[in-house]
Amino acid sequence: MKSLILLPVFLCVALAFGIGQPPTQHPMRFTNGNQADGKVLEKRDIQFDTDATILSVGRNKRSAAWRINLWDYGDWMYNGVIQVGNPPVSIMVLIDTGSGGTWVNGAGCQPSCRDQPFYDPKKSSTARNNSKGWYQAYGGGYVNGYEVRDTITIGGVGQPNIPIENFTVGVITNTTFGGSTYAGILGLEISDWNPIQEAIRRGYFNNPIISIFFRRFPNSRNATGGSITFGQVETDYCKPVIGWYPITSWRWQLGVSKIAVGSWSNTTTVSALLDTGTTFIYGPTNQVEQIQAQFKNKTYYDGNLWVVPCNNFTGPTLDFTIGGHVYSVQAPNYLIDRYGNGVECMLGIGKADYGSQFQWVLGTPFLRQFCTSYNYQTQQIGLAESYWYL
């Protein structure tokens, strides 16, 4: 989740639940059976389950590959769960490759987080106060609090999980984020503050890889709509990896040699951040205005984004050339149903000028079209088509 691009309304959090079986034995269930957005699922007869799944166990019986499900809130956000402390408190968090650091709401958090789940280190037998402050700013506001070292467990109660003892977490006492159902962020950026990296260092995963899969569920409010796989590349919901690409900085950024939409194109290589915590795709003002002009059936402009009719919408693909391969995002994945009623949709391409570090942010529209795998050791990103890209 990057500064200047993500408003609080775009964020929310949901739970992943108990132990399941491998997909070949225990198919994952969608709420609407084999239908997804009115289309019969193709390629694989696999559906979502609300359970986590152990995929394999390492030789030392400690390392493993496993996945937990993520919940989709109307294609605006995808979220999972962590536990903090002992006894553990389950906290709903945003899964965010665009930021580092993990924080959760603390006891007494206010004003806007007072009615949300919280973690109280005074009630945890394993908590150690660092006596340091915690502050993190985002586009939609900020969080402020203090540091605590405690056990963070990735995964929910009763499901496969990995406890990471004595890890630093931010405990938030004040935030400007209001009206959200998320109560924390799990930052997956390359950082010493990332608990996944610490789990990799401790040998908990078969491979130093996480793999993220999102799908469309435009009218959902808390539907299972994705997964995060730890320790291996996701293969049940994603096709084979097309290519592995080196990142262009310490963040999950890739070089994009060409961007083309309709009759417009840019052939100057730019750097793009892959960000699971951002609802839209963002780019420089002068380029995005030309891209938005390629769409003929816009109805009105709302702040930074155009509104278009959801029904009978036709638009060009968004083509990003990475490593010589063209990755095309199709219209159903860059439209976001504004109110969940199938009438008004946001055209998910907005303007944001970031400066020299990176120029574009590829948020969930790109990540619904393509599965992404992140190798923390080689610092590469693998891209693959999703079996449910539409």
UniProtKB/TrEMBL annotation:
GO molecular function, one term: aspartic-type endopeptidase activity
Membership in a protein family: Belongs to the peptidase A1 family.
TM region(s), chain numbering: none
GO CC terms, sorted: lysosome
Official protein name in the record: Peptidase A1 domain-containing protein
Keywords (A to Z) from UniProt: Aspartyl protease, Disulfide bond, Hydrolase, Protease, Signal
Residues of the active site: 96, 275
Name of a matching Pfam family: Asp
GO annotation (BP), single: proteolysis
Domain Peptidase A1: start-end pairs: 78-384
Gene3D superfamilies, sorted: Acid Proteases
Record-annotated disulphide pairs: 109-113, 310-345
Position of the signal peptide: 1-20
Superkingdom of the source species: Eukaryota
KW Iron-sulfur (keyword) present: no
